[in-house]
Amino acid sequence: MSSFAIATEPLSISTNEAVASEARLGLSAKPKTLSPWLFYDEAGSHLFEQITELPEYYLTRTERGIFTDHAEEIIREAAASRGPHPVGKLTLIELGAGTATKTGILLREAVRQQGSIVYQPVDVSETALAEASENILRNIPGVSVRPQVTDYTREGLPLDRLPNTRTLALYIGSSIGNFKPEEATSVLRNLRAQLLPGDTLLLGTDLVPGKHKDESNLLAAYNDAAGVTAAFNLNVLTRLNRELGADFEVNSFRHKVLWSAAASRIEMHLESQYAQRVQIPANGLPAFNIDFAKGETIHTENSYKFTTGAVIRLLASADFLLTKAWYDSRRLFAVTLATAI
Ligand code: AVJ
């Protein structure tokens, strides 16, 4: 059994093949599913950027606020010498760096504290990495950027370690929230395998409902008034139509969001408004048929929400020990520094 249903994208075959096999596998499953990585074609990546600026989507701006308020301490703690090896400078590696817009705050602070820094952004998207490198090189003197195109959920990280350095790995933006608990542990173990004792991980996680955050705030973050998240969710069907020649009637599906307290996650679905059959052509073979009942859904994303305890247990499951956690004043979001043991 593959524990990585979320990232079944073998890099050896074309993206189109990966999209085709993901669609066939997910849409013949019961309940029907599609993996969230399918969201991020060009249109979807653009829609996601828009989501991060929505009034309801508090995650991005809250995490950025935590970085702004605590960058000095975050970098100082990460650079502190712990463990058996005395070390010099801090090096930064970032999983799923994307365009690295929030990372600039930490890079600037690292340059301020130690004069210069090596930054290794890792992402599956070459274009996102190119944009990240360009932005950082142009705006933050003292950073040397070494981008790496890799699917970190499947492969070892291409960490080229400089002698006598301490590594700080960033996994921010609540990206870990897309993974089921066992998958999240695997992702962090994969990262841990590339680190030395004393290296650190900075993990960004969205938090469960609390005093200043009720279920309705959570639901609104994934069901905004302007309909951007709905468009982001539905775009996956447009993508299957374009890339596979599927005949999804996109308007016949509705964006649906629910909070599962039992699983501690937001779920996004696409709900068929009536009974229908959708076809995906299959290269000369009989087309692949997908039958929907009225009200049946495709489960397109999980977004897990954490307690501090759940973060600590997840870290421990991958041999990381909590060093320090920072929160915004409303406890919407957590940024946690953990040390590899
Ligand atoms: C990129 C996985 C952190 O779960 O909040 C945003 C993706 N989906 N709105 C999240 C997303 C719908 C986002 N992550």
Describe the structure.
- The structure is a single chain.
- By secondary structure, the protein is of the alpha/beta class.
- Helices cover 35% and strands 26% of the residues.
- The chain is built from nine helices and 14 strands.
- The strands form three sheets. Strands 2, 3, 4, 5, 6, 7, 13 and 14 form an eight-stranded mixed β-sheet that branches. Strands 1-12-9-8 form a four-stranded mixed β-sheet. It has a two-stranded antiparallel sheet with strand order 10-11.
- Residues 1-13 have low confidence and may be disordered.
- Bound molecules: N,N,N-trimethyl-histidine (AVJ).
- N,N,N-trimethyl-histidine (AVJ) binds next to strand 12.
- The site of N,N,N-trimethyl-histidine (AVJ) has 11 residues, from strand 12.
Keywords:
about 350 residues; alpha/beta; eight-stranded mixed β-sheet; four-stranded mixed β-sheet; disordered N terminus; binds N,N,N-trimethyl-histidine
Q: Output the helix-strand order.
A: HEHHEHEHEEEHEHHEEEEEHEE
Give the tally of β-strands: 14
Low-confidence runs (pLDDT<50, min 5 residues)? 1-13
Radius of gyration: 21 Å
How would the global form be characterised? globular
Distinct helical segment count: 9
Average the pLDDT over all residues and give the rounded result: 92
Major β-sheet annotation: 8 strands, mixed
Portion of residues in beta strands equals: 25-35%
* Helical residues, percent: 25-40%
Q: Which cofactor or ligand species appear?
A: N,N,N-trimethyl-histidine
Spatial gap, N to C terminus:
29 Å
Specify the structural class: alpha/beta
